[in-house]
Amino acid sequence: MKKLLFIISLCLIAAQSSQDPNRFRQEVDKLIATNQSVSREKLIMFTGSSSIKMWNNLKESFPKHNVVNMGFGGSDMSELLYFTDELITSFAPKQVFIYEGDNDIAKGKKADEILASADSIVNKIRQKLPDVPLVFISAKPSVRRWELRTEYQDYNKALKAWTQKQNNVRFADVWTPMLKKDGNVREDLFIEDKLHMNEKGYQIWKQVLRKFLI
Asked: CA-based Rg of the chain, rounded to a whole angstrom?
């Protein structure tokens, strides 16, 4: 009986970690429809999970650039891969910023599994947009997931090393500037859920990412 319960438990975990990406279908379709009229001239796309989606003043953060927010909350790297052609290549952006990995780590995924999806995203983009510069944003620290900091740090280290082996792919570190001098996460950068950022957090992202804009 115990063995049966253990097997059932494993199956439930597996099911949770491999959710159908089409659970985002309505949200993605709405994103695409809403942004169909966006100017394609020198378009810079930000996509990924809720830290991108909730960047409400993204356009105001980079007023001299034609930026579009294509984030969909709760997503992970494999789910972005599923929608890469629809969300990214169909808009033919001149530059793409990607934030995934945060939810992956929280789901228990390992760095090599996340990077396998990232590699597939790059390959899929390169098939249609061979020269577009890509920027992968490191996972951020947060109060809510601070107990997983070692896993996040390992992922960020692996992500940075991976980008250095890619052509025209860069790594943006938002982890380090969101820490105190003692190495702990700054609690003043988050809204009430202790996971998503407030304006102070996005100001840090703005300062980091503006250096990468082309």
From this structure: 17
CA distance 19 to 121: 18
Say if 71 falls within a structural domain: yes
Which tens digit of pLDDT belongs to each residue from 64-108? Answer: 999 999 999 899 999 999 999 999 999 999 999 999 999 999 999
One-letter amino acid at 205 equals W
Given a contact cutoff of 8 angstroms between Cβ atoms, the answer to whether 122 and 134 are in contact is: yes
> Based on the number of CB atoms within 10 Å of its own CB, is 211 exposed (0-12), middle (13-18) or buried (19 or more)?
exposed
Number of domains in the chain: 1
**Over the stretch 128-173, which tens digit does the pLDDT of each residue have?**
999 999 999 999 999 999 999 999 999 999 999 999 999 999 999 9
Which CATH number do you get for residue 84?
3.40.50.1110
CA-based nearest residue to 69, from 27, 31, 26, 125: 31
3-state secondary structure of 1: coil
